[in-house]
Design a protein that fits this description.
This is Zinc finger/thioredoxin putative domain-containing protein. This protein is α/β, with parallel strands linked by helices. About 30% of the residues lie in helices and about 15% in strands.
Length: about 260
Amino acid sequence: MINHCPHCKKKLSFTEAQLEKIEEALFRLQPGQVIKMGCPHCKVPIELKKEVQPERKDASTFFPGLLDGDIPAESPPAAAAPPAEEVPDRRPQVAGAAPPPPKPPDISWLKTGEYGEKAHNPDDATILILMPDGEGKNQVAEAFKRMDYRIDYAASLGETMEKMVSASYAGVVLHTGFEGGSLAESRVHHHMKWLPMPKRRYIYYVLVGPDLQTLYDLEAFTLSANLVINEKDLGNINVILRKGFHDHETLFHPFLESLKKG
């Protein structure tokens, strides 16, 4: 249907009733006949003629006998496509359940009380100990004093958070029950987990508790700590700290030195 006058180029608008009449008139036209209607704008007659639909042709027009099953005998069958080359699956194959995590280390050697040389604090740094009063707290403090660390304590959660924000510590020792709840609810532990890495990497974070497995690196990693100690093993705290410091130094010292040089 024409939308613009071919003479004045203005847009033509028709009501639905007018469109139906025009379409009916065009439908009744014989081939070669035209109807004329005046443009409502320029009044010049516009000629309309019936659009002739092209004859539809199906496949039988171009391929006689195709639909009758009369396919020329001389037409050779199409060759089958060669099978696609099989690409080997190089993805790692997983058979059955995932392997269990490594077992906690054998710490029976702690009873010997020997491991490497005595660790030493060359910078006169301070360790913050957050543990309930008792023998375990005293054992931890004495062990760090032997390595020439200064010791600091906090009596409440408020004092702890204030000190951790305002002071710089070389290490923090936190008992999982220091705040009276679980470790997951501990504000101190949450603070340590989310410390900015430029500060966190220089703090040796030790967790002590009744449910931890001493020197279990995987557990320490999961808890965002450097060392985990079961409180029943605090009698061997000197050896445990020497082993923990040795492993930490071996793993991180080259990285920390490169950061200082950079």
